[in-house]
Amino acid sequence: MTRRELAHWARQPAQVLVALVFPVMLLLMFGYLIGGGRGVDGEYLDFLVPGMFALTMVFGLEGTMLAVTQDLDKGVIDRFRSMPMADGAVLVGRSAADMLQSALGLAVLTAVAYVLGWRAHGTFGAFLGALGLLLLLRFAMLWIGILLALVAGKPEMVQAVQILVWPVGFLSNALAAPQSMPDWLGTVVEWNPLSQTATAVRDLFGAPGAETGHVWAAVAWPLALLAVFFPLAVRKFGALDE
């Protein structure tokens, strides 16, 4: 199933390229346009870049959702389900391919951030740990996207469901500190799983003034989401013909 998805990359390289370029465009836009040109400021980059890493782990789910709904709409899923394989195999293959693309996108975004002047100040082990937290969040979000795609069922519904992703992404501390927000909004932002990952990643990257002690939450939140949405997605997949 994973090889099938990778074969789609070879036939449709433009989609892969767009997925790699989009996070870079966001970083440049928020660093140099919306950020008022502060992207050249090292201190601002220390705050912005880890937040952008976390934000891009949430964005891009529409590609996963679109692929799943297209397979449903064309009857491909029905053919797979008639074969002797576990119900989760199709979905795990889809998520594995998406994780490879996410890891590649994270590598490209990291290289661009280094070109812009951003640097990780922590140890190499902490750097790898930060990347691991980011990919863990991505893996959890993928299963939310897969479940939503199975519920939507049609490619035309993806855009409507996709709208839900943007509030989750921007209602976080990826781009602004909760302390600068109204108290009630800051509380909501701090409880966002994306905020926990962004804060933990800033700490592991050694960003000056970064909050500490959030690594456990950055691990617990994605695991909790996986514990809920992974079995729900597999169960929904197994009940598609009911």
From TrEMBL:
GO terms for molecular function: ABC-type transporter activity. Residues 1-204 form the ABC-2 type transporter transmembrane domain. Pfam families: ABC2_membrane. The chain crosses the membrane at residues 16-35, 47-68, 89-115, 127-151, 215-234. Keywords: Antibiotic resistance, Membrane, Transmembrane, Transmembrane helix. It is found in: Membrane. One of its GO terms (cellular component) is ATP-binding cassette (ABC) transporter complex. It is a multi-pass membrane protein. One of its GO terms (biological process) is response to antibiotic. It comes from the Bacteria. PANTHER family: NODULATION PROTEIN J. This is ABC transporter permease. The lineage of its organism: Bacteria, Bacillati, Actinomycetota, Actinomycetes, Kitasatosporales.
